[in-house]
Every structure is written in structure tokens, then in C-alpha cells.
């Protein structure tokens, strides 16, 4: 029982931190997204493609969460945007406390979009609230279509689902119907975008979803300025 209580306290203080950080984003009209998936589903590639497509129009900052190393941050910086690497030193998710260490170094006045790439893990990243408006979950076809049944919280907490590596569909057992049905049982109206980040197929639908959000926030931003 003590453990349960302690865990609830950790989550409660994390939520309070994340709420305060989110208020800072809102004050500056910045859209925050949190990208989650198991290892190797394509989070960093999604960040790279998103940054490449949008960076000339929108000002983007990326936070990369990894247990160790800066391989992913280097890939993002190579796209020409600012990126902060958080090494969790063993922790399998990002939380508000880790983010509060890097938040002051991000000039929120100079960005429109904050992309947070969480640690590769389909379990606890869903339990720790981050300062974002939208949670994105990426699943790749080689992982199998049973993920929403096995890790329901991840999907319940998500606002968009991206199914990556559809170019591999002929070679793997991934049942798109089973997958969509299982997801929609948890979240009836959630957008599911089937993409190949490698070939670019389907990516434009994801990009228009995101740009739509950016434009809405941007209108609010200019509204509060005048
Ligand atoms: Mg990555
Ligand atoms: Zn964790």
C-alpha cells in the first residue's frame, strides 16, 4: 500500500509541474507535442521529417529524451533546428522534473512548436504528464497489430496514432483492420495515419493535422498581441 501511495504522490507532483510548464507554453502561444512509441518505431525519423517539412514556416524547438547518448539529438540538429538532449540515466520515461531542468534554456518567445520525443517505451511515458497539448503515439508494422490491446493506456492518452513502416506490410503480420478497431474501441474518433516515413507515403496527412493546430494557436497568438 505504501508503494501505491508513493507512486500517486510522485504522479501528482509531476502533474503540477507539467501544468505550470504548460501555462508557460500557453502564455507564448506555443504548441507542445509529445511523441511516444516503443524503441525503433520511428519517433526520431518522424521528428526529422516533420522538422524538414515545417521549419521554414514555423519556429521549432525539439527536446530529445533518451536513456543515454545524443545520437538522436545530432540527427535533429542536422535538420537545422535547436534541440536539447535529456539523458534520463536509466529512467524509462520523461517527467516534469527532468523538463524543468531544461525549460529555462528554451526561449519560448522565439518558437511556435515544441516537439518532445519521449524515451522509447510503450508503458510509463503514458503515465507521466508532460507540458504538451497533444500526445502522439507511433506504432510500426513489424511490432504487430496487438499493441492497443496490450498497452491500452498509451492509446487512451493519445490524440493521434501514426502507423509507420507501411512499406513493410507485405512482409509482416500486421492487421490494419484489427489495429484500427482496437484503437477506436479506446478512442472512437482518434485520427490514425498510416505512413511510410522512409518513402514519405501518407506523411502529408500528419503534417496537415499538425499545421492545422499551429495555425489555430497562431491566430490566438496574434489575437492576444493586438
Ligand atoms: Mg529516438
Ligand atoms: Zn518509465
The H-level CATH homologous superfamily, spelled out, is: P-loop containing nucleotide triphosphate hydrolases
Q: Please give the radius of gyration in angstroms.
A: 17 Å
Helix content: 40-55%
Q: Give the uncertain stretches in residue-range form.
A: none
Order of strands across the main sheet? 3-2-4-1-5-6-7
Total number of β-strand segments?
7
Question: What is the CATH T-level topology?
Answer: Rossmann fold
The ordered string of helix (H) and strand (E) elements is HEHEHEHEEHHEHEH
Helix/strand class = alpha/beta
The gross shape turns out to be: globular
Query: In DSSP terms, counting alpha (H) and pi (I) runs of 4 or more, how many helices?
Result: 8
Distinct ligand kinds:
magnesium ion, zinc ion
Report the end-to-end length measured between terminal Cα atoms: 53 Å
The largest pleated sheet is described as: 7 strands, parallel
CATH architectural label: 3-Layer(aba) Sandwich
Characterize the structure shown.
The chain is of the alpha/beta class. The protein has a single domain (20-203), classed as P-loop containing nucleotide triphosphate hydrolases (Rossmann fold, 3-Layer(aba) Sandwich). The protein has helices at 2-27, 43-54, 71-77, 96-102, 147-150, 152-156, 176-186, 203-225, and strands spanning 31-37, 60-66, 82-87, 113-117, 134-140, 160-164, 192-194. The protein has a seven-stranded parallel beta sheet with strand order 3-2-4-1-5-6-7, with helices on both faces. α3 (71-77) links the parallel β2 and β3. α1 (2-27) packs parallel to α4 (96-102). The longest helix has 26 residues, at 2-27. The N and C termini lie far apart (53 Å). The model has no long low-confidence stretch (mean pLDDT 94). Bound molecules: magnesium ion and zinc ion. Zinc ion (ZN) is lined by residues 91-93, 121, 124.
Amino acid at each position: 500500500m505504501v508503494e501505491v501511495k508513493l507512486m500517486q504522490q510522485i504522479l501528482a507532483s509531476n502533474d503540477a509541474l507539467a501544468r505550470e510548464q504548460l501555462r508557460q507554453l500557453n502564455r507564448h502561444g506555443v504548441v507542445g507535442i509529445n511523441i511516444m512509441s516503443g524503441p525503433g518505431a520511428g519517433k526520431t525519423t518522424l521528428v526529422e521529417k516533420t522538422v524538414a517539412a515545417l521549419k521554414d514556416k514555423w519556429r521549432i524547438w525539439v527536446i530529445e529524451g533518451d536513456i543515454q547518448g545524443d545520437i538522436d539529438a545530432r540527427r535533429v540538429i542536422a535538420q537545422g533546428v535547436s534541440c536539447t538532449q535529456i539523458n534520463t540515466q536509466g529512467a524509462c520515461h520523461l517527467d516534469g522534473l527532468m523538463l524543468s531542468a531544461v525549460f529555462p534554456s528554451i526561449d519560448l518567445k522565439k518558437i511556435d512548436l515544441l516537439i518532445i520525443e519521449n524515451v522509447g517505451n510503450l508503458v510509463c511515458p503514458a503515465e507521466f504528464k508532460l507540458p504538451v497539448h497533444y500526445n502522439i503515439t507511433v506504432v510500426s508494422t513489424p511490432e504487430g497489430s496487438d499493441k492497443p490491446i496490450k498497452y491500452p493506456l498509451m492509446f487512451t492518452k493519445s490524440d493521434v496514432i501514426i502507423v509507420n513502416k507501411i512499406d513493410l506490410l507485405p512482409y509482416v503480420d500486421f492487421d490494419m483492420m484489427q489495429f484500427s478497431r482496437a484503437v477506436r474501441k479506446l478512442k472512437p474518433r482518434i485520427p490514425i495515419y498510416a505512413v511510410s516515413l522512409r518513402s514519405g507515403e501518407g506523411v502529408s496527412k500528419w503534417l496537415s493535422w499538425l499545421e492545422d493546430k499551429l495555425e489555430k494557436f497562431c491566430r490566438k497568438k496574434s489575437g492576444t498581441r493586438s
